[in-house]
Automatic annotation (TrEMBL):
Source domain of life: Bacteria
Ranges of residues in domain Peptidase S8/S53: 121-360
Active-site positions on this chain: D127 (charge relay system), H159 (charge relay system), S312 (charge relay system)
Region (Disordered) residue spans: 246-278
PROSITE patterns per UniProt: SUBTILASE, SUBTILASE_ASP, SUBTILASE_HIS, SUBTILASE_SER
UniProt name for this protein: Subtilisin family serine protease
SUPFAM superfamilies: Cadherin-like, Protease propeptides/inhibitors, Subtilisin-like
Organism: Actinokineospora cianjurensis
Length: 612
């Protein structure tokens, strides 16, 4: 029996090492790869012949026969026919991936914006098949081939349909008009072998139309030279190929096809921009994409959907992104598409990206094109008049050096034509005014970026200014506040409120964290000097503990920490700068961590979000 591969999918295989046995040997499946232009002695029963993905065949051999065949001068190598399967974890929250990939920041806006549907691009979904009758495909999905060996020309698993829906479903897809071709290489249990996957790739290369195309393999297993070689042939045929990094929480360089350098290897992130705990990491990962709790098309009936998690769900987001680029520039090579997606990806957003992994999250709709300069958007900027301003705009890709120009800059500022540095002392009052910066490379290819600038006099406050947090002193009990326990109360004694009759007491009774969270607050862009203030009193039920602390977090990032052991006596006020969250809706988490040995209480009162 061959070794197994897994649906994410990454396939990994090693060269066969055979030890002869004196006992009678049972035969099992092997894949034989021939040297170019060579053929072995015709004495083996061939199960599957490969002509395009690799030059070779699959057959049944005993270990002794495999060893003998490996010594044939016509043979490059012999390896076991390994198995593959899908890596997915069923979850139920609503999908969010499309909302995330069309914007740089993680503040979801309940919209997915796209400029093309990629109707001139073909997507080969090399997977468990595709339920072509799902209405998400609108008649654009067709059956290609079935090399899984199960004889069932249908997606009886669902994984492939889900993947195809993320690539090109009208409701769930990135490229909503793409033509989907089902290439079934995995059976109803999501399992396949080196043989079945290589045969599917072989079919794609033989039947690839002349137009732009992408292929997605959300599958994998051990390191596998056959699959690596097949993927390289697929890409050499002009098909941009995305593969999943794998779901072992390990090094993607130890799996195939994730380790294939020419492919785009994709890791998974959560809705909070954390690396998914299951996602493989390492230098073989090219970028990350949403992969947790992704809703897409399913196999059950024409309108069916399902919500799954895995790097299997991340890779098709990138396949769709590649299709959007190819739709605009069909002659772009796979290498150019891959380089562009990596360069244009949003840097620095992923928490715990993993050792060796790039902190890059896929993005679409930036207007950048392969081969053109990619200009990083510096984001919203706010400044006081009379105060020096510096904004460094950077570019990559294209052909350096770049020539810079800008329109809409505040009076008193300018951009360096050779540096991209905006500098000067603004004297003009502007509120949410657009600035357009252009970078032209030495081949006369120009890319522009647009961002907003606010410049106001000292002492100016935004029109919607003032304290915006409802029930800031808890005098209405727990109204608009959520806590992980019964912490809002009329506390007395050492835990008495600072003002009024109510406060929230957040104990350190668990290392998992106790929380107090108010309702979300919207901070308009022009209110760039907004602050969060709060009062905290620390009381101890036992000895002071180094572990006990209160964190203030927004978007998964800690903005302030109060240490229980060193906090002064009595109520102390703390201020958090919210300027970095202008233009966003924020959810503020007050979270305690500690242990049950020596409980510390953090009494919180008079919380305010003041827009300025």
């Amino acid at each position: 029996m061959g070794k197994a591969l897994s649906l994410s999918m990454a396939v990994v295989v090693g060269l066969v090492s055979v030890t002869p046995s004196a006992a009678a040997e049972a035969s099992s499946g092997y894949v034989v790869v021939l040297k170019d232009g060579r053929a072995p002695a015709a004495e083996y029963a061939v199960r599957q012949t490969f002509r395009h993905a690799v030059n070779g065949f699959s057959t049944d051999l005993t270990p002794r026969q495999a060893q003998a065949l490996a010594a044939d001068p016509a043979v490059a190598y012999v390896q076991p026919n390994r198995r593959v399967r899908a890596d997915t974890t069923q979850t139920y929250p609503p999908s969010w991936g499309l909302d995330r990939i069309d914007q740089r920041d993680g503040d979801l806006d309940d919209a997915y914006t796209y400029s093309t549907t990629a109707s001139n691009v073909t997507a080969y979904v090399i997977d468990t098949g595709v339920y072509t009758a799902n209405t998400d495909f609108g008649g654009r999905a067709t059956w290609g081939t079935n090399t899984s060996g199960d004889g069932k020309d249908a997606d009886c698993h669902g994984h492939g349909t889900h993947v195809a829906g993320t690539i090109g479903g009208a409701r769930h897809g990135v490229a909503k008009g793409i033509n989907v071709v089902a290439v079934k290489v995995l059976d109803c249990n999501g399992n396949g072998t080196t043989e079945t996957v290589a045969a599917g790739i072989d079919w794609v290369i033989a039947h690839h139309t002349s137009g732009p195309a992408v292929a997605n393999l959300s599958l994998g297993g051990e390191a596998d030279p056959v699959l690596d070689a097949a993927i390289r042939r697929l890409i050499a045929d002009g098909i941009t190929t995305t593969v999943s990094a794998g779901n072992s929480g390990a090094d993607a360089c130890q799996q195939s096809p994730a380790r294939t350098a020419e492919a785009i290897t994709v890791g998974s992130t959560s809705e909070g921009d954390d690396r998914s705990s299951f996602s493989n990491t390492g230098t073989c990962v090219d970028l990350f994409a949403p992969g947790e709790s992704i809703t897409s098309a399913w196999k059950s009936y024409p309108d069916s959907t399902n919500t799954l998690s895995g790097t299997s769900m991340a890779a098709p987001h990138v396949a769709g992104a590649a299709a959007l680029l190819l739709a605009v520039d069909p002659a772009t090579t796979p290498a150019q598409v891959a380089a562009h997606l990596v360069l244009d990806a949003t840097p620095g957003k992923i928490t715990d990206v993993g050792p060796g992994s790039p902190n890059r999250l896929v993005v679409v709709g930036t207007g950048s094109r392969p081969g053109y300069p990619i200009v990083a958007n510096p984001g919203y900027r706010a400044q006081r008049t009379g105060t020096p301003m510096t904004i460094q705009v950077a570019a990559s890709g294209g052909t350096a050096p770049y020539t810079w120009s800008a329109a809409g800059l505040p009076t008193g500022t300018s951009i360096g034509a050779s540096t991209g540095l905006i500098s000067g002392t603004p004297t003009q009052t502007l509120v949410n005014s657009p600035v357009t910066v252009s970078a032209k490379d030495s081949a006369n290819r120009t890319t522009t970026v647009r961002f907003l600038v606010t410049v106001v006099p000292p002492g100016w406050t935004c029109p919607s200014g003032g304290q915006k947090l409802a029930n800031p002193g808890f005098e209405s009990g727990d109204t608009v506040w959520w806590t992980s326990g019964y912490y809002v109360d009329r506390w007395t004694g050492v835990n008495a409120p600072r003002t009024g009759s109510w406060a929230v007491k957040i104990p350190t009774t668990t290392s998992m964290g106790n929380h107090a969270v108010p309702e979300d607050v919207r901070i308009p862009q022009e209110c760039a000097w907004s602050t969060l203030t709060f009062w905290v009193k620390v009381t101890h039920q036992g000895a002071k503990d180094d572990w006990d602390k209160l964190h203030v977090r927004i978007d998964g990032k800690t903005l302030a920490t109060v240490l229980g052991k060193t906090a002064p006596a009595g109520y102390q006020q703390y201020t958090v700068d919210l300027s970095g969250h202008a233009g966003k809706t924020v959810r503020i988490w007050f979270t305690t961590w500690g242990d049950t040995a020596n409980i510390t209480d953090f009494v919180l009162d008079d919380v305010a979000v003041t827009l300025r």
